[in-house]
Amino acid sequence: MKMSHLFAPTLREDPGEAEIVSHKLMLRAGMIRKLAAGVYSLLPLGLRVIQKVSNIIREELNRAGAQEIFLPVLLPSELWKETGRWDVYGKELFRVKDRHDREFCLGPTHEEIITDIARNNIRSYKQLPINLYQIQTKFRDEIRPRFGVMRSREFMMKDAYSFHATEECLQKEYKNMYDTYCRIFDRIGFKYKVVNADSGIMGGGFSQEYMVLADTGEEEIFYCEECAYAVSSEAKKSDNCPKCEGKSLNKTRGIEIGHIFQLGTKYSEGMKATYLDENNEEKPFIMGCYGIGVGRTAAAAIEQSHDKDGIIWPMAIAPYKVVIVPANSEDPEQMVMAKKIYGDLNHEETVLDDRPGRLGMKLKDADLIGFPIKVIIGKALKDGKIEIKLRKSGEVKLVEIGKIVEEINDLL
RNA sequence: CGGGGUGUAGCUUAGCUUGGUAGAGCGCCUGGUUUGGGACCAGGAGGUCGUAGGUUCGAAUCCUAUCACCCCGACCA
User: Could you list the residue ranges forming a coiled coil in this record (predicted)?
Assistant: First the structure.
């Protein structure tokens, strides 16, 4: 991609509407623009990050045996009345009527719909277990949307639902999803904790939240350095770790980006969703559900990794991995070399800053957008060398022209 | 929904108290000089002052209503 062609309207100053750093930087880097409170347009850089997060989630879930589906956003009220959530969900549910005055809502989550599919299409224990997921826009009329895409009314979410014949089978899949989520967040490069949580309106039994550690996180969490134990502030019972006796708990803040639930039979009983077991007896499905906030994951990455100059993307979800910057756009030799290197690299992950203008302006934009690798073609070219500068560490390497492509590819 | 606050050019904002020509910086356009961390000079475009009423000879400024947005609280990926 050529920078002169890329639609990334960067802002030099902080927009007044943004309070937290990820919101400010997503606006300044030209990733998002607001349409209404809690409703955001994704521009090319923002969409690319969302797609990279989605792809990692998709790869790991597929590998874990889940199957991707795509459910409607527009949902008839009948299913919601079956479980009682038409009333329980309250004002947070976006309700609409069609021309015949039939009531619908815009999907905030899809337990009812997936359970309806299961009861209509799964009859035998032999068809279990199964885990179905989708990556889709969700709607929740939040009481107070805030912090950009961190808490918006329209947002991208991955939601998965599993169906089981036995409690043991649910436990096994829950553990499978637990591990899968760890792989997903490890791949992105997060520092995170898994804490026991309140299930809220989802209901059911046990649930755990994945919290990305960041000073600006909305929730206070406590964790033990010795073992994996972590807990959110409202559930904390003592100052010491219950597993490692006497060890005191450390306090930090986190952003919830994932939540896994053991639902049990709450929805299947409410909706009479049953299968026949090996004794020809009708049994309600035992269910689990597993969510990840995709947009929030991108915002959390920025909260966790940024500096005064801008975003420091982890390699795995950077919108582009490399930017090539000729120091002087009027210098023909530098431009020829920049284009040659651009030609030798993967265009899908590389931006060539071919704009006229001074080096400082281009580097400021590059640091704001957060490309992990800057390739600067400047003064050292006379000595047959090109500069590689890493966004995260600031480390600078002078590399001989002949080795530059190999060197860059080694860093990806 | 309760409490607090803000709406002036694409962005950041001055002007409002005390009514009388809408101003700046950045960005944008044209020309020139520049080119290693957001350059400089010259010229230029861009404004229903959130909206609707009212007071007044005259309203960005005063009054009323209304809308939008932001922050704190309950909710959540």
Answer: none
Rounded to an integer, what distance in angstroms lies between the CA atom of residue A412 and that of residue A266? 46
Q: Could you identify the residue whose CA is nearest to the C1' atom of nucleotide B74?
A: A143
Q: Which of residues 284-323 of A touch strand B (CB under 7 A)?
A: 291-293, 295-296, 309
Within residues 149-208 of protein chain A, the ones with CB less than 7 A from nucleic strand B are 149-153, 155, 157, 198, 200-202
Which of the four pLDDT bands, split at 50, 70 and 90, describes residue A243? Answer: confident
Would you say residue A173 lies in a domain? yes
In a domain, A10, yes or no: no
- What is the mean pLDDT of the segment spanning A52-65? 98
Return mean pLDDT, chain A.
93
Residue A255 lies in a domain: yes
Place of tokens 């009027």: A330
Query: Is residue A101 assigned to a domain?
Result: yes
A113: tokens are 């719909």
Relative to beta strand A207-213, strand A350-352 is unpaired
Nucleotides of B under 7 A from a protein CB: 1-2, 11-13, 25-27, 34-39, 68-77
CATH code for the domain of A183 = 3.30.930.10
Distance of CA A409 to the CA centre of its chain: 26
